UniProtKB/TrEMBL annotation:
This is Malonyl-CoA decarboxylase C-terminal domain-containing protein. GO terms for biological process: acetyl-CoA biosynthetic process; fatty acid biosynthetic process; malonyl-CoA catabolic process. Residues 34-51 have a biased composition (Pro residues). Residues 4-252 form the Malonyl-CoA decarboxylase C-terminal domain. GO terms for molecular function: malonyl-CoA decarboxylase activity. Residues 34-60 are annotated as: Disordered. GO terms for cellular component: mitochondrial matrix; peroxisomal matrix. It comes from the Eukaryota.
Length: 288
């Protein structure tokens, strides 16, 4: 958290971070677990002369050494601070402090929502329907939208299904093996939505800046978009805003200042993203 010198007793901004062993792909991996309920009848202590067997003592696991700091929430109790870019500085300060306190940390990432995705996609689908699914489309967006509409139709779903309940779409995207026709149809919808989300994050702009407010915040602070995850937040809120999708932004400390300067100077033309994210953004999304 951070405080103002004139309000030493009032935190201005909270940054929530989880220390984990890998880059998280779902919200449940970073949220604090509920503490175990106390035992009704605690076990009796061993006799004073008893000592643990040597084998049991040697089998004790080594202490956990986290390798990844995952920032998953930035919030402020003061509505007047909305839009004030204090969170980015706080992330950098927190990363420096964590690196000093936990030498095992090597990676600093976020697990972030995509709050503008549904609004953008709904508007794009409406425009696509109005044009009859045709028209000149040099960016490939029309093909991606048609691919989603085809996939939804084949799966027996309407356009709002991924934003209301996952239903048959619940579960991860398959990576191989034999699939039933139902699984293949669900996968086609999942892949289309993830591809369109990548296109939205990398290509949807306003004044040469990322249209998504969270993406713009992290890009402006020098982070890179490195991964997009399906079913990362299947809560009602996660479905409502982004069909359960969440993403990782990577704060590579030696590169942060250069990426910040490039984005401020040139906007999305210098947007930092992983090759996999760019591949998704460029994919047509069609079923053929």
């Amino acid at each position: 958290m951070t405080r103002h010198p004139r309000m030493p007793g009032e935190p201005l901004v909270f940054v929530h971070v989880a220390l984990v062993g890998e880059v998280p792909s779902r919200l449940a991996a970073v949220l604090p677990s509920a503490p175990p309920l106390p035992s009704v009848s605690p076990p009796s202590a061993p006799p004073p002369s008893a000592s643990p067997p040597a084998a049991a003592a040697s089998a004790a696991p080594p202490p956990f050494a986290p390798t990844t700091a995952a920032f998953y929430s930035i919030s402020s109790p003061f509505s007047g601070l909305r839009g004030v870019p204090v969170g980015g500085l706080l992330i950098k300060q927190a990363a420096a402090s964590l690196a000093a306190a936990e030498p095992s940390l090597r990676t600093f990432v976020t697990l972030s929502p995509v709050p503008g995705f549904r609004t953008w996609l709904t508007a794009r689908l409406a425009r696509q329907r109005a044009s009859g699914g045709g028209g000149e489309d040099l960016s490939g967006e029309g093909a991606a939208l048609n691919g989603l509409l085809q996939a939804l139709s084949a799966a027996g779903l309407d356009e709002t299904a991924p934003f209301s309940e996952l239903g048959p779409l619940h579960g991860p995207i398959s990576t191989g093996g034999v699939q039933s026709p139902e699984q293949e149809r669900a996968d086609a919808v999942r892949r289309s939505l993830v591809g369109l989300c990548a296109r939205y994050l990398c290509r949807a702009t306003q004044r040469q800046r990322a249209l998504d407010p969270v993406a713009g915040f992290h890009m402006r602070n020098g982070a890179a978009l490195i991964a997009i995850h399906w079913a990362a937040n299947p809560s009602s809120y996660g479905l409502e805003e982004s069909a359960s999708i969440m993403v990782n932004y990577h704060y590579d400390m030696p590169e942060v200042e250069a990426r910040h300067s490039a984005y401020v100077a040139k906007g999305v033309t210098e947007l930092a993203a992983s090759p996999e994210v760019w591949r998704l953004a460029h994919a047509s999304g069609s079923l053929t």
